[in-house]
Amino acid sequence: MATYSYRAIDPNSNILVGRLAAQNESVLEKTLGMQGLTLIEAKKTLGLSLESLFSPRFSEADLLNLTYLLQQIIISGISLVTGLQDVVDGGNRKTLAPVFLSLSSGIQSGMSLSGTMQERPDVFPSYYVQMIRAGEVSGTLEQSLDYLMKYLDWQIEFKKSIRSMLVYPSIVLSFMGILIIILFVFVFPALIGVLTSLNAALPLPTRVVMAISGFARNYGLVLIGFAIAGVISYRLLTKRPAIRRSVDNLLLKLPLTGELVKKINLSRYFKTLATLQASGLDIQSTFSTAASVVNNSELQARLARVTESILSGGSVADALTNTRTVPQLVLSMVSIGEKTGNIEGALARSSDIFDKEVRETVKRLFAAIEPLIVICLGALMLVILLSIFLPLYGIVGNIKGH
Question: What's the whole-number mean pLDDT along residues 306-310?
């Protein structure tokens, strides 16, 4: 996804200048159009700069803190410019002060808060800007900030829970990989050298270990180089939309892993839908923005069609059904929510269902991986024992024969 520097005109004939990430210029034009802006000119900019390389990374926790401070400024009743400047003068965190300074400068130049935020796509995601704009238009900016705080807090905790569940299997697999490298690069060559010096007849397991160990020692750097080149090539190739979508589609078809990826993305999608719907955003902006937070491009394409189906007169439940992605239980909940006028609650409950299923899927994934780890470790120990003790038995037998 490229970053574009653009010039656009709003309904009041004001010229706005900003930066926005989009797959191509056509998508950029549609995104701006949903925000009531008409694209005049767009230029693709480099994704990296000296400033971005050496500036502190702006995390979701920083964005949560920024949102809290913004809400306190609104509640206090002081002017937004004064409040933003007070935060800057107060020597707040290095990651926050430059952002507050740019917000203050933008507002002083006559731009709206959402318009100023839109110029910083590296800090404010699309859904964030949309909710702030909805709050400005409806006069419920404080409530929009409250929704954003709850959403960001959920997102941070959700990611923490996923990471904590993956820590143990990651550590086990990492230690297993390190053990294999140590054995084949350092331990086996020394032991096999001793066996070879005794002129013992080497059985097949020992010869196999010798071949693998010799290859690892002689071509280890080459293998590392190929691995690095493979990772770089993969990252470059997956920047192409067609290749990225094929890879993501394949990922969804993998057993357990594909299920986990799908549920994580659907959880984010429904939570974003519920938050945007509660903030009063229009249907088109709500569903198109929620689809943009999905990381898997195949799922994103399917969910993007939901917006088109709803705008053409279809129901939300029918549009989600056509994606062939959402479970029947969630579809039934959304359908009932539409009929009873509580679509917001149905979407929030759907997100809770996916949150729980993500945790259960991670447990099932590790339950499937754990026996494979035990089998691999057992096979490794068997190879070690056979490659070392079979030659020793042969040497002992020869000694007894003499």
Answer: 87
Which ranges in 90-140 belong to alpha helices (H)?
Answer: 97-108, 113-118, 126-138
Taking the C-alpha atoms of residue 121 and residue 315, their distance in angstroms, rounded to an integer, is: 32
Q: Which residues contact 73 (CB under 8 A, 6 or more apart)?
A: 80, 83, 84, 87
CA neighbours closer than 13 Å in the CB half-sphere of residue 166: 10
What is the C-alpha separation between 24 and 308, in angstroms, rounded?
19
How many whole angstroms separate alpha carbon 390 and alpha carbon 209?
13
Of 239, 63, 227, 36, the closest CA to residue 149 belongs to 63
pLDDT digits (tens, 9 = 90+) for 168-213: 777 877 887 887 788 777 777 777 777 677 666 677 777 787 787 7
HSE-CB for 373 with a 13 A CA cutoff: 17
Q: Can you give the pLDDT at residue 48?
A: 44
Question: How far is it, in rounded angstroms, from Cα 156 to Cα 247?
Answer: 27
Enter the tokens of residue 91. Answer: 């020597």
Q: What is the pLDDT, as a whole number, of residue 21?
A: 62
Rounded to whole angstroms, how far apart are CA atoms 35 and 8? 11
Contact, 4 vs 45, CB < 8 A?
yes
Rounded CA-CA distance 388/402 in Å is 22
Phi, psi dihedrals of residue 342, rounded to the nearest 5°? -120, 50
| Structure token digits, residue 6 | 């653009």
The whole-angstrom distance between residue 167's C-alpha and the CA centroid of its chain comes to: 17
Per-residue pLDDT, 332: 92
* Structure token digits, residue 195: 């066996």
Spatial strand order in the sheet of 15-22: 15-22, 2-9, 38-45
CA–centroid distance for 49 within its chain = 23
Environment class of residue 211 by beta-carbon count within 10 Å: exposed (0-12), middle (13-18) or buried (19+)? Answer: exposed
Residue whose C-alpha is closest to residue 355's, from 270, 258, 248: 270
CA distance 138 to 135: 5
Residue listed under structure tokens 């279809």: 314
Q: What are phi and psi of 13, to 5 degrees?
A: 65, 25
Q: Give the global pTM.
A: 0.66
Q: How far apart are CA 189 and CA 20, in angstroms?
A: 56
- In degrees rounded to 5, what are phi and psi of residue 119? -80, -10
